[in-house]
# Entry
Amino acid sequence: MSEQSTAAAAGTIDVGGDLTVNRLGFGAMRITGPGVWGDPPDPRAAIETLRRAAGRGVNFLDTADSYGPEASETLIAEALYPYPDDLVIATKGGFARPGPNRWTPDGRPEHLRSACEGSLRRLRVEQIALYQLHCPDPGVPYAESVGTLAELQKEGKIRHVGVSNVSEAQLREAQRVVPVVSVQNRYNVTDRSSQQVLDVCEQESLVFLPWAPIQQGDRNVGVLAAARRLGVSAHQVVLAWLLASSPAMLPIPGTSSPEHAAENVAAAGIELTGSEVRAIRDGG
# Structure
């Protein structure tokens, strides 16, 4: 692995069949303030982090209107607009934010429509490449929420639709309403409860975006052994493991540090052995 490895070293993946991106992205939640609330303590560092990631070949950014709220999308536009031709910005709607670290599902059609319109303005785009329903709202029929995204797609405001925080049954329900191109669920070394959903993504050529991809990876004996052999960090090994685990996987590690962003991207060039991949999978 080279410290100068770019996201291209991870190979590419197609989003929706017509958007090709490098298979290591950037999650833009952490560039906001504490509790994912308000502006970051150092806006210049946040902007530099985004530019550092893009400069290392990251051309898939994942954000949401609820990150800040609004701050993440605003910073992305400030840092990178006018956007490179190959940059895909994915955003999400479906959460209200009453305060720091507080997340309230809101899948009402009027909320989702307003959220999408706000994202278009903040990102300074006429169409959102990938718009994801952030979570099911227990108070709103799921098909109704997904149906709003289908309407926005017909209006040309959304190019592709994705879903997040779903079971396989909810994914299937969404697919009956609109073509779904991606799923964003929690998935990492210690939490593979979404394995069944990942399997569906592999079988149907959907993109799987694992959130919280590096959590608790440094507690895995296999991760630590591979990190020692390669002379890299445990976080880098975990990202390499995710890439090796499934061709549907598009990891989106996030950070507020330019240096950590570059370190994460360098993981694209790490090659684990088959035995290391199995040892990490088995927790040993």
User: Anything to note?
Assistant: The chain has a mean pLDDT of 96.
